[in-house]
Amino acid sequence: MKILTQLPQEEDDSAIDLTPMLDVVFIMLIFFIVTASFLKESGFEVNKPAVQQQPPTEESQSIVVKIMADGQIFIGPRRVDVRSVRPNIERLRAEKPEAPVVVQAHAEARNELLIKAMDAARLAGAVDVSIAELN
Questions:
Q1: pLDDT tens-digit map of 11-29
Q2: How far is CA 70 from CA 108, 109, 135, in A?
Q3: How far is CA 14 from CA 6, 9, 17, 24, in A?
Q4: Which domain CATH number covers 120?
Q5: Which of 23, 30, 106, 120 could form a disulfide with 85, with the two C-beta atoms 3.0–4.6 Å apart?
Q6: Which range marks the domain in which residue 86 is found?
Q7: CA distances (Å), 60 to each of 48, 56, 57, 96, 102, in order?
Q8: Residue 16 forms part of a structural domain
Q9: Model confidence over 87-132: pLDDT tens digits?
């Protein structure tokens, strides 16, 4: 009588097929690459004032609009309301038509006032509107 000490070995066919998983990964990769190329960040273009080596002459001086931290707006030495920025810039542009407009805003000033001042300058006919930080 013969006793079997070992059971016959059966082949193990329980391997996982990775092909569908790789297909899904490649499809997701292609999807993210395509959608990332169509994403566009919104914003607006800022014109920084150019550095001048010589002091400005009288005819090339800028129209400066200063926005303080507490919300006060100054054009030159005069304090003005946000609604009167446009008429003041129009008046100054009548005197100096080629003068650029520089909006100097304090770091703690509200962005709303900065945008309103820039819009008022554009509506007043200023083509060159720049932003500078007020110290």
A1: 666 777 778 888 999 999 9
A2: 8, 7, 14
A3: 22, 14, 9, 22
A4: 3.30.420.270
A5: 120
A6: 61-134
A7: 16, 6, 6, 8, 12
A8: no
A9: 999 999 998 888 899 999 998 888 899 999 999 999 998 888 888 8
